[in-house]
Write a structure and sequence with these properties.
Number of strands: 0
Largest sheet: none
Number of helices: 1
Mean pLDDT: 89
Order of helices and strands: H
Distance between the termini: 117 Å
Helix content: over 70%
Length: 82
């Protein structure tokens, strides 16, 4: 009877170890995917932040060019007496 219990316990132990190893491998895969997603998300956020800064800089440049054109027009008009 004791021998049967030992074999039964050994089989259960082997199955349990396999389940634990499989669960750990899935955990590792999930952790790697989450890490990759975190890096991707972080890079997208940085891209969006930089894109917003670039958008703002371009709007400022457009405004400055518009101001420059208006100044040149006013100067040209006052210089020519019109």
């Amino acid at each position: 009877m004791a021998r049967v219990n030992e074999n039964y316990i050994a089989k259960i132990s082997t199955k349990f170890k396999a389940i634990v190893n499989q669960s750990y491998e899935r955990f590792q895969e999930t952790a790697e995917m989450l890490y990759g997603l975190t890096i991707l998300f972080t890079s997208k956020v940085n891209y969006l932040q930089q894109s917003g800064k670039l958008d703002f800089a371009l709007l400022q440049m457009i405004q400055q060019v518009s101001d420059l054109i208006n100044t040149v027009r006013c100067f040209k008009g006052s210089y020519l007496g019109t």
